[in-house]
Amino acid sequence: MHLLTFDLGSTLYKVALFDDGGRSIALERISPPLVNNELAADAFKKTLLSAVATLRKRVPEAWNDIAAISFATQANSFLLLGGDDRPLTNIISWMDGRAAELADDLKTISDRPDFRGVTGMPRFTINLGMAKTMWLRKHEPELFQRAKRFCYISDFLTLWLTGLHRTEAGIAGLSGACNIQSLQWWKPGHPDVPENWLPKVERAGADLGMLLPDVADIFGLPRNCRFIVGSLDQYCGAVGTGTVNPGAVCETTGTVLAAVRCSDHLETNLAPDVYQGPAFDPGWFFQMSFSSTSANLLEEYRSSLKDHPTFQSLTRQAESAPPGDPVIASFDRDLSSFRNVQPHHTSGQVVRGIMRCVTQALAQQLGHLCGDQPPVEIRSAGGGARNDYWLQMKADTLQIPFVAMECEEPTSLGAAMLAARAMGLGSLPELSKRWCRPRARFMPR
């Protein structure tokens, strides 16, 4: 048995194949052609089909044994479909900022006394898909009147492969429009979107049945291949690092920085910046703190250098750089984060300063998430999990052991584990013991 996963990241898609022992068989990375934070629906499909075609050529025999598909996904990127399920809009990224002009209207939703208790969200922000639908109704009313379905990006994948209009509970939980206990849509969070436009909410790991036959043929998959609901990428990263027991914590240093904790009950006294959403079983939840102060700072700096050095090269420079790092501020897209960088600072000093900035942001997130009860260890996912120098810095700064996983893509592994559970290969705690194999453990010094 083999399991195929789609990781629909904000700037990079990953298609991965795993065997029934949790081992990665093949991986293909591909960048979607985003233009001004939008992606055409046809381009989305072509991007995934291209990655699948490349992967299939590399593992033709294993391809014939794929039993199930699942996904990990970004949240709040969405599109509207017409009555014939033809796209009326591009896929609008969560990074799009058009709803900023509606700040007062969004604050009205945030300020409702029942908002956080119902949705698990600290606030209703401009990044939410529902905020952008308010903008579309105001600025493109004719298009809005023709719409019949609202789809998050993973809902669009699900509709394409199964013909079913479904969304995952963790994604719905980050919409600002879902009751995270009943998994029913909450009208104050989607004031301009009719209820009948919205997908049915399914919990991560739900089995939606076999793929549509014509779609299975397009992908070259067995017609009995099943589609298993995946989850939010941060939650899949938690599952893929084995963070599936109460109190366990993982961190992801990627496009965003996120700390995630697993809980077997709904918390009622969370810090102001912590999000809470439904997990893989009834009564289970993930709590998350995240920010844009992450590895994107390092990418912004790397892109500003003439020779565009590799991250490995930058890390070596940071290790050997003399003392005297600049103080790097939190992420800002106009590069004001680097305003303290002076001509005498070496690239290594700047990189080390960036790493320290992100590490301090993680320490703050952990404080918000866990208060005065830190975890016994933190498991790492994202690109930063492959940087041993940075992991040791995190362990030393937070005075908590950090564990790097053997699997290079634990987020994809988490999606595969949800599929494996649905296919009867074991519970998530059982699978985590067998599949989530540590690569290295970094002890605080």
Structural summary, described in words:
The chain has helices spanning 41-58, 60-63, 103-110, 115-119, 129-139, 141-146, 153-162, 169-173, 213-219, 233-240, 295-304, 311-320, 347-370, 388-398, 410-422, 428-435, and strands at residues 2-8, 13-19, 24-30, 38-39, 66-73, 78-81, 91-92, 149-152, 166-168, 178-179, 184-185, 200-202, 207-210, 226-228, 231-232, 249-253, 257-263, 275-278, 285-291, 378-381, 402-405, 438-442. It has 445 residues and is an alpha/beta fold. It has two domains: 2-229, ATPase, nucleotide binding domain (Nucleotidyltransferase, domain 5); 241-405, 2-Layer Sandwich (Nucleotidyltransferase, domain 5), CATH 3.30.420.40. Strands 1, 2, 3, 5, 13, 14 and 15 form a seven-stranded mixed beta sheet that branches. A seven-stranded mixed beta sheet has the order 18-19-17-16-20-21-22, with helices on both faces. A two-stranded antiparallel ribbon has the order 4-7. Strand 20 (378-381), helix 14 and strand 21 form a beta-alpha-beta unit. The protein is globular and about 60 Å long. The mean pLDDT is 95.
The general outline is: globular
Task: Determine the mean pLDDT.
Answer: 95
The portion of residues forming beta strands comes to: 15-25%
User: Which percent bin holds the helix content?
Assistant: 25-40%
- Write the CATH fold name of the largest domain: Nucleotidyltransferase, domain 5
Overall number of structural domains: 2
Q: Mind describing the biggest β-sheet? A: 7 strands, mixed
N-end to C-end Cα span: 43 Å
The low-confidence runs, each spanning 5 or more residues with pLDDT under 50, are none
In the CATH hierarchy, the architecture of the largest domain is: 2-Layer Sandwich
CATH class annotation of the largest domain: Alpha Beta
Tell me the name of the CATH homologous superfamily of the largest domain.
ATPase, nucleotide binding domain
Number of helices: 16
User: Using DSSP, what is the number of strands?
Assistant: 22
Helix vs. strand class = alpha/beta
Work out the radius of gyration: 21 Å
